[in-house]
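Handout, page 2. Input:
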Amino acid sequence: MIGLARRPSTDQRLDPRAFDLLSLTMAGVLGVHAGHLPWWLTAALAIVLAVRWWQRRRHGARSPLLLKLPLIGLLAVAVVFSYGTIFGREPGSALAVGLLVLKLLESETPRDARVGVSFACFGLMAALLFDQGLVATLVVALGLLPALAALRALEPAQPATALPQALVPGLALLLAAVPLALLAFALVPRLSSPLWGAPNPAESHTGLSERMSPGNFTDLLTDDRPAMRVAFDGPPPAPEQRYFRAYVMWRYDGRSWEHAQWRETDGRARPVETVEAATGTSYRIDLEPSDRTVLPALDVPLDAPADARLSPDREVFADQPVREPLHYAMRSAVRYRLQAQLPQTARSLALRLPRGFNPRTQALAAQWRARYGQDDPAIVRAALALFHDGGFRYTLAPAPLGRDAVDDFLFGTREGFCEHYASSFTVLMRAAGIPARVVTGYQGGYWNALGDYLLVRQSDAHAWSEVWLDGRGWVRVDPTAAVRPERVSLGAAAAAGNQLGWAQSGWLAGLRNRWDVVNHWWTEGVIGFDALRQRGLLTSFGIQETGTATLGLLLAVGTSLFVALGVGWALWRHERPEPLRQALRRLEAKLGRCGVRRRRSEGPQHYLRRAARALPAQRGELELLMKRYLELRYASDEPSPELLRRFQRAVREFRPRRVVK
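Output:
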């Protein structure tokens, strides 16, 4: 792409307006990729682009070869240093955008500009590999405007116009292409994966993890991206019942909780925990990609959807990691009794604590057991009262904890968020002899009445506890609610208060939540338009066969029809007459009525001179009209509006009197 061409001659060089549009095109490509490029690479490329534009405008010369070659090598080294390779989606796009900007260093001819614009269009399309949302798609489409304007500026005899006016024809072309784009969208065969799909094993997605330790949720609690959308067949459950189970964690090493499947002592697989529920709630979830197999489900799921399984702890796991938006239907119980009888193996695991950790917590739990005897619910209430009345504070920026993390939290810092409270409460229960485990998932969400669904964001990630009580089975206990009830009733943003800054202000949060309806429609109707939906769309028009051959034939016929309509419109449209030519024809009509008609082979100058000889009494007027016409036609690319109006007025006022034969 970057070559060692000869220095162009003067008549081959780009004019300043074409170079400006080319620079704007490349700046647009850099802008749409800036979100996933390293900030220092984006800044460096922006500086190179700006310096090159200034150097071309001030000095009008191409950059020296000794500067280009080191920059190319430095770019390759920077990409390898940042990503470890030049292959893959992120490093490939970084290298492509860098080479595109460096192409500007040698862009001096129309050929260079056309190559740069073509590669810039590829770079714009590559941005959709990272974000296919509505806003991102519109930004990429608008990025085509300077590219189209640059190509138009390369055409010969194009008048210099202001920048906004130069972009208008490109906008008209984009609007004219919308029907053809819709036709291609509906008829191009859907594939199981995009043509540009490339493996990227190092990629990670924000989401819940199989391991939880105090502080891990900080990034999630400040991540405002949607995690899932939930539509209920009936009315939505109350806010205090909107708990979505993801991972059930039994193992604790003194610092972290870990999700791990365990079997019975004899090696047999554990059966699914029994649940007694009078009714179930039916709902549908649209899950965003997480690159994990866990499928969050409301409270206690009663069954698993297709291509998924129900774990012994009533978690739901898909057969494959979720790398594309996933839609699944579920039934769950929000009022239930879970595992009324606890096997001894499960009881032993639910009471296990590592030796030598948190002695003060162990002592406090022993005091409660001695005080309340076998009254396990009373011990649970005592722990919740400790959190409610013990001066604990909910914050997203807690102080760090040491080796005895629970001791440090309960008797020292007394500040944290859901992870801290769920972990310390569960340790307290186990130390007091009550079987307990940690559950992570999501809690709350925003009920979008306009879209009739519950929007759950990554910031709604939550952790709580389950304790086993005789006669009641596993019971959910949320110790965070004892410290900050708003976390359950109003959501994560309300619990955080002003800790999330202006981005969580009420009016802005409401605007984002309502805008999510548009994003949801775009995801469902455009990004999620798969082969099944394509078949359903075409079936409504009476097309039963939707094979590749049929779709190809329909696409060819539809494209031919659009091309025929475009050609027909171009051939039959009536252009608005040019004002100067129209005025000359009016003058010819006046002279023709006096017998002086213009011959086919006669130019305007010769014709008006002959008319002046035929009308000697008006020779001066005709010679003046001829002079003004020639100045307006040939003296400049665009005639002066004031001079044009004077010529039109002179033609209207001209009155030929007689013809001399």
